[in-house]
Amino acid sequence: VIATLGYPRGARARWRASPQAYMAARTREAVRIVQRLRPDFLVPAVDPFGAGRIQLGTLEPADWMRLIDTIARAAVGADDRLRVIAHVGGFTRRDRILFDWAATAASPVNVVAISLMPWYDGAESLDRDMIAADKWIAASRSQKEVWVLEARGFPTVHGELNQERALWAALAWATSRSAVKGYVVYQASDYESQTGLRAPGGRIRRAAGAVRRAIRTLREREVQ
User: Fold this and answer.
1) Residue 98: CB partners within 8 Å, gap ≥ 6?
2) Residue 44 above 90 pLDDT?
3) What is the DSSP letter of 69?
4) Contact 207, 214 (CB under 8 A)
5) What is the mean pLDDT of the chain?
């Protein structure tokens, strides 16, 4: 079970009023989730310089480090089985700073997670991000696990064939890197965003077949 701590209503105003009070409130919420749900993994902040910037405004990497660190240590204190995931959603300079910090032994993070998806220029941007991820992983020299926490395509914009190709390309990259231990397809269905494996009407998109084949192939490899 992976629990993700999202952003509350009025997050930006609450942060501006008092970063300390905001941080304390989110920490209490995380501890309640951990105590009641008992998840295996916790994501203290979703895509800080993407979704986080939209919700809270442009914060410095140090602010996000402090927030993740505070929430992570309190959550693990409530359940020492818990593993913490730092989600680095982009490949900007600020994302790199957060990635490098999360990968250090001093951070309370167990898993450093990235997102892989095609953007406006399609496969070219996906290729650039995978090359960047290779460089970041190599430079960090970390023993911590790396996950692709958010692999997705955009079937409505790029077409369903290209959604399948994007997911397969990200999976091929992930399974050929020894540091990468997790791969999560985002998302199951189209209700809040147009990226699901199931269309709004219930039709299963062709990318779901690629995911099934990948699962079967990986299981066969484990048996061998």
Assistant:
1) 48, 49, 61, 64, 65, 86, 88
2) yes
3) H
4) no
5) 93
Cα–Cα dist 40/53, whole Å? 27
Give the integer Cα–Cα distance in Å for 30 and 219. 34
CA distance 116 to 192: 19
Q: Where are the alpha helices (DSSP H) in the chain?
A: 11-17, 19-37, 51-56, 61-78, 93-103, 123-140, 155-158, 160-175, 206-223
pLDDT, tens digit (0-9, with 9 covering 90-100), for 69-128 = 999 999 999 999 999 999 999 999 999 999 999 999 999 999 999 999 998 888 899 999
Threshold 0.85, pTM exceeds: yes
- In three-state secondary structure terms, 198 is strand
Choice among 8-22, 49-63, 189-203 with the minimum mean pLDDT: 189-203
DSSP label at residue 218: H
Q: For 135-163, give the secondary structure using H, E and C.
A: HHHHHHCCCCEEEEEEECCCHHHHCHHHH
Residue for token pair 């064939």: 161
Say how far apart CA 218 and CA 216 lie, in whole Å. 6
